[in-house]
Amino acid sequence: MNSEWQNFLTASGAVSAQNGQPGFESDVSEQVQDTVCDLSADVVLRITGDDAEKFLQGQFSNDIAALTDGTSQLSTWSSPKGRVITVFRIVRLAENHYLMQLPRELVAAVHKRLKMFVLMAKVIIELEENLICIGLSGNAVVTALETSLGPPPPELDGSAVHGEVVISRVRGAYPRFEVIAPVTDAIDLWSDMAGVARQSGQSVWRWQNIEAAVPSIGSETTEAFVLQMLNLQHINGVNFKKGCFPGQEVVARMQYLGKLKRRMYRASVSAESMLQAGDEIYNEGVSSSVGKVVDATGNGSGQMHLLAVLAIAAADKPLFADKEATCAIELLDLPYVLE
């Protein structure tokens, strides 16, 4: 983590959370819309070179060739067996110049593995520790962004570049943005946003992603799911017509010839369950699990919300966080339509 950014957050009132990332005392209080969130659990890869677009088009699930100025993409990188290694957002800065935001806990493996496929291609993949990731949410930050930097993107998956600061509009019930910025710009932006939004850590952003039913893959769930199980076909995370990518045969077979037997659900459970990504979910009286937690976090009022991939046939039966069926899980509506 960038030391200058870490020192700034500490001076702004951040404390070290259990995962080692900065957090704020307000993170465990009731959720609010207007937030400025530290996303130090994410990191940025810069991909450049004459063959960058062609290379990435052959690796990722979304259509890199369709990325233009003013747009970003949610996308995935999968194993040859079609299992999602990571879910990430990618932005095109210029021809053959991209920024890829992904979880820090996966970046070393992804970086190393991606470079293995470069071979003779003219592609450079660099880890950018001096680029800071920030999450912004709420109507108040829209006006503040216009004053601080310039107009933010109005449409989902839109992006705007102001100097060296990149702003992408992401999914949510209210305006939400992911920002990538050099550390000095990030400090200035945070200071401006803190006047209108609550300072928060990554757990608040995770809560908002869960409410938006946008999956995040970490070390406990990497290569655990095929992308359709994560509902990515419903939230613009894949293009089935773009051509080949690792795992494409498995993904296409499931899309056109198979029947999806598992998909992602949103749910609520008592905070006493302490559910975490990778934990199993059960039906009453069944010893084997019927699903796996994708992500889970608390809301400060005794409840946890979670995303979980469940067997569709088991989802209409009582669900529990334990084999003993003492901690019930309640399914919640998804914020988008499953076509």
Describe this protein's structure.
- The chain is of the alpha+beta class.
- It has two domains: 3-211, Gyrase A, domain 2, CATH 3.30.1360; 261-333, Beta Barrel (Elongation Factor Tu (Ef-tu), domain 3).
- Helices cover 20% and strands 32% of the residues.
- It has seven helices and 19 strands.
- The chain has helices spanning 3-11, 52-57, 104-116, 139-148, 183-193, 202-211, 248-256, and strands at residues 15-16, 22-23, 35-38, 42-48, 72-78, 84-94, 97-103, 124-128, 131-137, 159-162, 165-169, 176-182, 198-200, 262-270, 280-283, 291-298, 303-311, 319-320, 328-332.
- A six-stranded mixed beta sheet has the order 10-11-12-9-3-13, with helices on both faces. Strands 14-17-16-15-18-19 form a six-stranded antiparallel beta barrel.
- The radius of gyration is 20 Å and the shape is globular.
Distance between the termini: 40 Å
Gyration radius from CA atoms, angstroms: 20 Å
Query: Biggest β-sheet, characterized?
Result: 6 strands, mixed
Could you name the CATH homologous superfamily of the largest domain? Answer: Probable tRNA modification gtpase trme, domain 1
Give the uncertain stretches in residue-range form.
none
CATH fold-level topology of the largest domain: Gyrase A, domain 2
Helical fraction equals 10-25%
CATH architecture descriptor name of the largest domain = 2-Layer Sandwich
Give the helix/strand class: alpha+beta
* Total domain count: 2
User: Briefly, what CATH class of the largest domain?
Assistant: Alpha Beta
Overall pLDDT, averaged? 93
Q: What is the global morphology? A: globular
